[in-house]
């Protein structure tokens, strides 16, 4: 599997603040990039995906992709306690497989 | 949207027995499905790629004779853990995609396997 690295965390932010999650990947041939949220004991659920350089916004979430730097990030604005979870960065390459980072655990303090 | 159903949600079995986990795509056909394993506080590790009508492709280090995968139809893949041992206890999750570029991958709800 290709290498995907995330900032180690855990990340603790106050309610209403912005949570910033980072991810780098090793395979320059990677085409699509995904952010999943995983609550404890549950399977991952897709939050966003991005495949073009730049920003993509969906509600309180913004994904940012820089292929030249092999970097993808996720911003969570107006963080809520319900956002407390582990966030997984996943990268899809030409081998049709998803490679996951180790995840960053986010805790939103009320 | 694409829905992937996985059963059972949890299972407890005795050491030495076999356990079958089912993964179904409910509203789309999936020629390829993926099986992952996740140990506590670790990320998802791809075990194998399940291909409809052909043999599964296993990742390095995964024993194909222990983790039997059958993808007999376009909507069903099964993972059988044979001769299970306590170290096989883990969270097993399947995934599939209707259109990865536009919809990403959808995961099943996962199966918590405990071998006693």
Number of helices of chain A: 0
Whole-angstrom Rg of chain B? 13 Å
Q: Determine the fraction of residues in helical runs of chain A and give it as a percent range.
A: under 10%
Number of strands of chain B: 11
- Characterize the quaternary organization of these chains: heterodimer
H-E string of chain B:
EEEEEEEEEHEE
Q: Round the mean pLDDT of chain B to the nearest integer and report it.
A: 92
- Approximately what portion of the residues of chain A adopt beta-strand conformation? over 45%
Taking all Cα atoms into account, the compactness measure Rg of chain A is 13 Å
- Quick one: which chains have the greatest interface? A-B, 23 and 22 residues
Low-confidence stretches of chain A: none
- The general outline of chain A is globular
The biggest sheet of chain B, with number of strands, parallel, antiparallel or mixed sense and barrel status, is: 7 strands, mixed
| Main sheet specs of chain A | 6 strands, mixed
Helix content of chain B: under 10%
On the 0-100 scale, what is the average pLDDT of chain A?
92
Gross morphology of chain B: globular
Span of the ends, CA to CA of chain B: 37 Å
Q: Report strand % of chain B.
A: over 45%
Low-confidence stretches of chain B: none
Quick summary:
Chain A has 110 residues and is mainly β. Chain A contains no helices and 11 strands. Chain B has one helix spanning 100-103, and strands at residues 4-7, 10-13, 19-25, 32-38, 45-51, 57-58, 67-73, 76-81, 90-96, 106-107, 111-115.
